[in-house]
Every structure is written in structure tokens, then in C-alpha cells.
């Protein structure tokens, strides 16, 4: 085992470009899986698949808390003097967390799985538990690579995950495996970390790193990050599950809404989620003024988002019908408002990264939990499915943004 050393330098345009390219390829693979599933399954069947896709995204989104804590621990080591003391092997901790999470899912499944998975119930539970265990290692390894500025390997691990998914989805489409095949495709990337450990010496070296502090210290910080990441995952990847839980029957309309939500948010949220390592490392480096450091990324998100709102409102309905079939119909206003809601969640993601970089774990988790709770309550309004979806996703995130900015404003620059 080796101790975590300082990263080789600050975040550069080249590193962002490499992760950006990997993100673009990963996003294309994600779109390809959704496209194949939507073309192969009718809207009601796609709704079932979308709920499992969202459930896995919710679970793995929570596991991204391990990425955030691993990145912060490794990156912060360059700014502090580390005395002799206990050390932690984050990858080992991730394995323990993954096994514990898988056991919790299996043991608790009789209480909730019947309400969430209407088809292939126990296969869905098994795939969810095993896939999450693997993703805990995946996320932690990403965090170690990000903290050490190993962005080429970071991007390769992302791409390996996405490519494995689309390969299984393509095989399912060709052989006609149906819904079950797309369930397997959803979790196929959970073994990407193992492939990278075998193929990449740099990744193996990162996986052997020790970080300052004991296991309890790492878990304490990670627990807040996991809570916040879990809340964020409910709004991002897990939203179909939340929508199902607050609705009697999604049906064909639910399938259209889930697809519209997924497509309108992906151009912003997929890159931001993939670049969590870059963002946290960037905000750790900006120790003198993180509120000022937020201005640039926030301006970029708003600018891109406004362009997306216009595009979604004008050509979005046609693209939806042309790409996924005549059964998938949504008007331009709905797609434009959903894109605006994606901008709000993207800004919450930015403020969250800045908050966790300062080790304000409680404020970070409180912001995301508050946003998710607000969105959940708004989903209970007596409105149409489309309207309450927009209201919940657009208004809820601003509660969390206020919590994050308040905490950052009270923190003295270092």
C-alpha cells in the first residue's frame, strides 16, 4: 500500500477536455441505451424499464458520495501537513460499503420492491444489489484518480462503464431479449472498475493509495456525502421512482414524461455528474474565494441552459417523435420548462460541489435533502402529471441552493 501524495498540479484545460470527451462519449452511449429501449418497448414497457433505470441511478447516485469524499481526501492532502497516524484504504472501505448496501437492499426488498418493480421483480432486486456493490468500488476509484489528476484513466473508467451498457443493450435489441435484457444492460457497467484494474497500472497504483485518518473518519465524511448524493440522485437519476411513488399509475403518459425528463436534463447533468472530480478538485484549489469561483461555472451553465430551453421548445417535439416514434408526443412548452428545471438542478450541483470541497458536509447534505423534500411535496399537488413534474423539478432545487450559498457565505476564506 502507498500513502496518498499530492496531486501533480492544478486543474487544467487539458484535463477538462479529456473528461469532457469521455463525458460526451458516455452520454452518447446512455442515449443509445434509451433509444434502443424506447424503440424496442412500447411506452408502457419503457415506463417499467425507466423505473428500474431510475432506481439504479438513484442507488449509484448515492454511491457518488464515495467519489466526492475520496477526491476531497486525496486533493486536500496537498494543503495540510499530515502527522504520523492512522491511514485508510478507501477502496477497501468502498467494498465494505458496497456489500453492506447490497445486503440492505435484498433484506428490505419484500417491503418495497412490489410497489416499485411491476415486472421481473426479483431479478430487478438482484441486479440492483449486485450492481450497486460494484459501483461503490467504481465511484471510489474514480475519486482517487480525480484527486491525483489521473484524468486519462478517469475518463477511460467512465467510458468503459458506458460502453459495456450499450453493448448489452445492442445485443438485446438484436436478439429480442426484451425488458429483461435492458435490465441487464443497465447494470453491465458495474464491472468496469475491475477491467481497469487489470488493464491499467496507473489505476492499480491509485487503488492502493492510503489517505490520512482512520476508517471512521473517512466514513464520517462519506456518510454526509452519500446522504447528499442520495438526495441528489432522487432528483436526477431516481426521479422516475419518485414519480411512481407519488402517482397511482404512470401508464403511457408516464413513459413519455420520464423520457422527456431524461432527454432534457442529460445535456447539462450528465457532464456535471461526470465532472464531479474536476469540480471538487477545482473548488478545493480555490481556497481563497469559493463564492467568486462559482461565478464562471454558473454563468456557463445558465448560458448553455438558455440555449437548451430555446432548442427544446422549438425543435424538441419533432426530435422526440422522429427519434423515438409517434407514440412519444410532448409539446414544446413542456420540453422547454423541463429544460429550465434541469438548469436549476445543475446550479444546485455546482453549489453542492463547492460546499463539499470546504468539508461543509452537513450543509452539503442539508441542501440536497431540503431540495429533494421540497420537490417531493410539490409532486403531491393536485395538478396534472406534466405540470407537477415541472413545478417540482424547477422550484425544489432553489431551496437547496439557498442552503449551500448561505453556508459558503459564512465560511471564512483560508
Automatic annotation (TrEMBL):
Span of the signal peptide: none
Keyword set, alphabetical order: Cell membrane, Membrane, Transmembrane, Transmembrane helix
- PANTHER family found in the cross-reference section: O-ANTIGEN TRANSPORTER-RELATED, PST FAMILY PREDICTED COLANIC ACID TRANSPORTER
Stored InterPro entries: Poly_Biosynth_Transport
Q: Does the keyword Membrane apply?
A: yes
Looking at the UniProt entry, the stretches that span the membrane are: 19-38, 44-68, 89-110, 122-142, 154-175, 181-200, 221-243, 255-274, 294-315, 335-359, 366-385, 391-409
Organism in which the protein naturally occurs:
Mycobacterium deserti
Give the protein name, as stated in the record.
Integral membrane protein
The record lists the lineage as:
Bacteria, Bacillati, Actinomycetota, Actinomycetes, Mycobacteriales
UniProt keyword annotation of Transmembrane present: yes
Compartmental location: Cell membrane
Membrane topology reported for the UniProt record: Multi-pass membrane protein
Q: Which domain of life is it from?
A: Bacteria
